[in-house]
From TrEMBL, chains A, C:
PANTHER family according to UniProt: PYRUVATE DEHYDROGENASE E1 COMPONENT BETA SUBUNIT, PYRUVATE DEHYDROGENASE E1 COMPONENT SUBUNIT BETA
Record's protein name: Pyruvate dehydrogenase E1 component beta subunit
Species of origin: Plantibacter elymi (nom. nud.)
Superkingdom: Bacteria
Coiled coil: none
Residue ranges constituting the Transketolase-like pyrimidine-binding domain according to the UniProt record: 4-179
The protein's required cofactors: thiamine diphosphate
CDD domains for the chain: TPP_PYR_E1-PDHc-beta_like (cd07036)
From TrEMBL, chains B, D:
InterPro entries linked: Alpha-ketoacid_DH_E1_comp (IPR050771), DH_E1 (IPR001017), PdhA/BkdA (IPR017596), THDP-binding (IPR029061)
Cofactor: thiamine diphosphate
Region (Disordered): 1-28
Keyword set, alphabetical order: Oxidoreductase, Pyruvate, Thiamine pyrophosphate
CDD domains: TPP_E1_PDC_ADC_BCADC
Protein's name in the database: Pyruvate dehydrogenase E1 component alpha subunit
Pfam families for this protein: E1_dh
High-level lineage: Bacteria, Bacillati, Actinomycetota, Actinomycetes, Micrococcales
Extent of Polar residues compositional bias: 1-11
Compositionally biased tracts (Basic and acidic residues): 13-25
Ranges where the Dehydrogenase E1 component domain occurs: 64-328
Length: 348, 384, 348, 384
């Protein structure tokens, strides 16, 4: 057990994967000598050589396409996309090739390719450096989409993702790279543990679902809510495709209320799918409609505005109020969803 | 301050060439060892690479070409009869495909587009499996590892990166296996194909880029995609290239041997442009009369790849009745296998829809499968 | 008023647009002499010249990227993507450039670019020729996403899309290209009429929402339901981004029940967003959870299986049964959503 | 039958060149009119294009280079002081940027990446607007139509297609305006850049591809992206190219004039590789000591683009005290404008988050705006 930053926890996870299986390769831009712009691959090229930690030409489609070819040859490539916003030039190779090859060949070909993507906002960056593109991939059959929220999960999940025979989009919450935590080396017995949601705080009054960078925010919100006597259950989804609907449904069966938060734009985000799935599964048990607290349906804005775009503790608590049928910002807006104005007094 | 000028600049500069406006003749700088009349043309370099081809080998190539053309004809007929949905003929491209594919070893790996039926035949793809994709009983018909050939990539150009990645894998394995990417003239406009050239050059990957320039991308003539001979593009990336008469199976064989030997021995990638012609429609759905003249097609008919080899073999007295009869019987058998195999392809089980989306467990999809199973169960003995 | 196929109705719409505004250009593969693989642009190059109906090199990113440059220069480009499955190589230019440029420049640049995409299945095609990628674009802020379902709408909507100053993804239901219908030339006064949902059948028992190719199927299902005494209201969404939530909510207020159908994969599809939005807006009025009848979360299958993948009349009616709380296929499946087994007898 | 062979193929073939393994010297085939010591080098062709540049013009170029370097220094300081989040220095690339941008007319249109601060200055971008993107008060700072320059494209290579499309628009307008795409050596690996070459060649679009080969894409040396001089790539696409010393403002000016004149007069696209060096870090977040030696940087410091022009002007007796003082005062003023303009940039209104996502009405977003307005209202006089 060591204390590591989330970024270092991934680094050690990659180190394990490279050491344990010589078919594991890393591909990406600036991952070699530089160790990646976030230093997640720091030291790995020096240790495993330039044939296994490969600086690739500046072309995302080429990185994914080459990984596919390498997988055909029996390798397990791990690609790094430098920032979320740079994944789109590789989109065709991901959704039309990588995702489909196993199905296309009736299982003859396996595509154990992991694509690491530092994602999300809150770091004051310029355009294209703060995006949350997970929903595009979660909508794509054939892919697995996961994201971690703390160092232990980062370490375990990257190793399990690499070991998984399916293609995995592995989203890394870049603004949490410097979060520290205890990290154990041993892997869970279940190789798909990385795809199961995890209850990070037990509670009874409402279920608050988050993933990636917002898990920490959700926990902070739960602490704040607790101060006001509201006991939130907080779930870290971990897997965005498939969604662990069972885990969330079990919680909602208990609480009857659901709040989902993510940074990505609201329309067609992962929150929409989860809200729809839970409504299908738990309709009679829901006391209120599931509430989404998300980024707005604008492009990711200039950094001076990102605090307004990103869900934060207050916006999450406002969503919790809504889910509890209490006075919330929604109360003030006209239309059908203003109906729940009769709830308790808001905290402010 | 403006640095603008109106100085007339000289017509002949020392700039690197590339005047796009002079049209490129189709056979510009093309290597040809066998002319349309079946006459051998000398070429000091390329001849070396076909010197060992005796009558047996030439007859074998001839047989492959005749057989694959026959497969093509049979498949086209099956489409006309409504037995398959679509077919992209390889008609006219037999020399390019057979000549190149026959150079490869079993352990090499080929990544193609959708038109490489003759390549598939040479790799040993079973003929019923060849038809599955076009009959729609499967997305693709064969196990790539059984024949050393990936199933067709329909997204234009995507497979060139797979081939390059595969070749990088061969390097890492210390293997002398070679990867080959087949693609068309139209594909050269796609970003992926150009990225593959960059990648292959950077890592000196053992990959052969085999471009069949059949003059068209559906209705678009090659002149829309390329202002220079396509083979001229690769050297600028650091990939040596050759331009050969793609209807000349000897030239294709020679060029492919040069390229494959180079790749096998650590010499890196090579680009081959095989100049050929798509004699048929783009696919059975296409109407080429909308965009090209019969006279153009006729001029290419005179360059038919099979005819010229036939003439050579005739002039050398090899193509006697026995030989002809043998080839015809192989072709007939293949056609029969195509037809029978195609018609016998089993309709997939409805629930196989959910199979092999993932290699590992996926509860969401399992749930959908169960839902659909119970949905279907409602109809048992019923309407559907 | 003339009777036209849907494909010809788009053709005449393009003709109008080219004739009325000489800044309108068409760009695409094989759209010139060939008139497009579906002949939607038939005759237009002959009439308007190769400078306005432009056969482009085989490169989708180049087609969209060039359209963006032309829009910078004041043109209104209309791009054709030959088939749904070929849009991904242009994805980056669409989501990272086209969608964002107006916002990026604080409104200085307008991107009146229309991207026409023949989409959907049911035509017995090979891989990549039957996809429904609309959700990717509906999740992308800055884009409008619309789709038509009959010749009149096809004609009107393509003209309004081209006239719109925002980028529009215009999805054409390719299996309905040969559907015939009456077509009027005049445009609605409201330039955004093409973005409003339309009630194609009034009804009282449940709201059935469809778009594109499935509107016709939905209407057929409604007729079949009527025979059994169930009166469905059928809404053609037309716009998938933004969703006309008001129109659907108004209907659900009346019926209390919602069924949504689309060909695209279920997870993260447009149905998820609509279900979540309607649940948010109409929670207290909903008698049952919104039901989704969609393609499954598999890649689009081989054509021999496509009838199983695609929602058809029977599957829609099964969904209606579920929404009505009647016996349906869901009744047989375990889990929380099996709860509505108490409904009326199934029709079969 | 196998057509495989093991014939040794000759070392010297008649194939099209491209041996990737011999390293390309940085100054291979580079046009240079002014050497690092400030000595004019003769070049029969290129000299013609700078023959009209007298002392006034050279002084003006010198001033631009000094000023833009000063802007760069000031912005870097602002970043170190926490006033802006990031800055990608143009340090060392002043000759490439100023020399090329000054050739353009107001009506031309420029599409750049994020490092073209000196180009922006030459196009007339206000210095506070230049800073807005880096201070994060806006995604980009200026109105492209006011200065004939699009706001920076951060996605590598995307803008080359925009430039080509714009150029196609110029053709259709019968205008003699020219589009210019600026991009780096790393960008040449992206599919988009190669597609832009295809497109420009196909339509003979009036576009100039201006590649600043500054030897690095972040940590990756140019040798990973290109096995041949970058300028060698374009001719294969049918786009003539030039390779010039990018630290020589005269050579850059001459090449750019050739290219722009050609485009303006219907001669189609041109590719220019300006061989230069990124003297600073990739951005202020970068630590170049991890991937390059100080000795390499020092060797390039000796080729500084400003020093050599200074030496020329000195040797011609033009750079007297008055001239120096004038340039210094312009630079000081620019630095002051950068700092003051940057610090004065207004924080955007929170609800402007929702502005200009669409040009036409969007009910869904309006609703979100109203929700957020009422959310913010809850805090009035309150906690937030
Ligand atoms: C990315 C993509 N865009 C468009 C298509 C549609 N399409 C199928 S074949 C074809 C022409 C291909 O031409 P070429 O590369 O010359 O190959 P050929 O058909 O001549 O063998 C086109 C445009 C496609 N399959 N993929
Ligand atoms: C599509 C994409 N991938 C990756 C990046 C991250 N990135 C930003 S700059 C850069 C290097 C660019 O190098 P080059 O083109 O030589 O330009 P330079 O920075 O040297 O001016 C990279 C990889 C990006 N911006 N866009
Ligand atoms: Mg072709
Ligand atoms: Mg560079």
């Amino acid at each position: 057990m060591t204390t590591l930053t989330l970024s270092k926890a991934i680094n050690t996870g990659l180190h394990h994967a490279l050491a344990e299986d010589d078919r594991v390769l890393l591909l990406g831009e600036d991952i070699g000598r530089l160790g990646g712009v976030f230093r997640v691959t720091d030291g790995l090229q020096a240790e495993f050589g330039a044939d296994r930690v490969v600086d690739m030409p500046l072309a995302e489609s080429a990185i994914i396409g080459a990984a596919i070819g390498l997988a055909f040859r029996g390798f397990r490539p791990v690609c790094e996309i430098q920032f979320d916003g740079f994944i789109y030039p590789g989109f065709d190779q991901i959704v039309a090739q990588l995702a489909k090859l196993h199905y296309r060949t009736k299982g003859a070909v396996r595509m154990p390719v992991t694509i690491r993507v530092p994602y999300g906002g809150g770091i004051g960056a310029v355009e294209h450096h703060s995006e949350s593109p997970e929903a595009y991939f979660a909508h794509t059959a054939g892919l697995r989409v996961v994201t971690c929220s703390d160092p232990q999960d980062a370490h375990t999940m990257i190793r399990q993702a690499i070991a998984c025979d399916d293609p995995v989009l592995f989203f890394e919450p870049k603004r949490r790279y410097w979060t520290k935590g205890e990290v154990l080396d041993d892997l869970p017995a279940d190789p798909l543990a990385f795809t199961r949601a995890r209850t990070v705080r037990a509670g009874t009054d409402a279920t608050l679902v988050a993933y990636g960078p917002l898990v920490q925010t959700a926990l902070e919100a739960a602490e704040a809510a607790a101060d006001e006597g509201v006991d939130l259950e907080v779930i870290d989804l971990r897997s965005l495709a498939p969604l662990d609907v069972d885990a969330v449904a079990a919680s909602v069966e208990k609480t009857g209320r659901l709040v989902i938060t993510h940074e990505a734009q609201r329309s067609g985000g992962v929150g929409a799918e989860l809200a729809a799935s839970i409504t299908e599964r738990c309709f009679d048990l829901l006391e209120e409609a599931p509430v989404r607290v998300t980024g707005f349906d604008t492009p990711y804005p200039a950094s001076a505005l990102e605090d307004h775009f990103l869900p934060d503790l207050d916006r999450i608590l406002d969503g919790v109020d809504r889910a509890l049928g209490r006075r919330s910002s929604a109360s003030a807006v006209g239309g059908a969803d203003a109906r729940s104005t009769t709830g308790g007094e808001g905290r402010r | 301050m403006s640095m603008e000028t109106h100085t007339q600049f000289p017509q002949d500069s020392d700039e690197r060439g590339g005047d796009a406006r002079e049209p490129v003749p189709v056979d510009h700088g093309c290597v040809q060892l066998l002319d349309p009349d079946g006459v051998r043309q000398e070429d000091a370099l390329y001849d070396l690479f076909v010197a060992d081809l005796g009558h047996t080998e030439l007859l074998a190539l001839y047989e492959d070409m005749v057989v694959t053309r026959r497969i093509d004809t049979e498949a086209t007929a099956l489409q006309r009869q409504g037995e398959i949905g679509l077919w992209p003929p390889s008609l006219g491209q037999e020399a390019a495909q057979v000549g190149s594919a026959r150079v490869l070893r079993r352990g090499d790996f080929v990544f193609t587009s959708y038109r490489e039926q003759a390549v598939a035949y040479c790799r040993g793809v079973e003929l019923d499996q060849l038809m599955a994709m076009w009959r729609g009983t499967a997305l693709s018909g064969w196990d790539p590892f059984a024949v050393g050939m990936a199933t067709p990539a329909v997204i234009i150009g995507a497979q060139t990166l797979h081939a390059t990645g595969y070749a990088m894998g061969c390097q890492r394995d210390g293997s002398d296996a070679v990867a080959v990417a087949y693609f068309g003239d139209g594909a050269t406009s796609q970003g992926d194909v150009n990225e593959a050239l960059v990648l292959a050059a950077s890592f000196q990957a053992p990959v052969v880029f085999f471009c069949q320039n059949n003059q068209y991308a559906i209705s678009e003539p090659v002149g829309l995609q390329a202002q220079r001979p396509i083979a001229d593009r690769a050297p600028g990336f650091g990939v040596p290239s050759m331009r050969v008469d793609g209807n000349d199976v000897l030239a294709v064989t020679a060029a492919m041997r040069i390229a494959v030997d180079r790749a096998r021995t650590g010499g890196g990638p090579t680009f081959i442009e095989a100049v050929t012609y798509r004699m048929g429609p783009h696919t059975t759905s296409d109407d080429p009369t909308r965009y090209r003249d019969e006279s153009e097609v006729a001029s290419w008919r005179a360059k038919d790849p099979i005819t010229r080899l036939e003439r050579l073999l005739e002039s050398e007295g090899v193509l006697d009745e026995t030989a002809r009869a043998h080839v015809a019987s192989v072709a007939d058998a293949a056609a029969a296998r195509v037809r029978a195999g195609c018609l016998a392809l089993p309709a997939p089980d409805p629930l196989s829809l959910f199979d092999e989306v993932y290699a590992t467990a996926h509860p969401g999809l399992e749930r959908q499968r169960e839902e659909y199973r119970s949905y279907l169960a409602m109809f048992e003995g019923g309407a559907r």
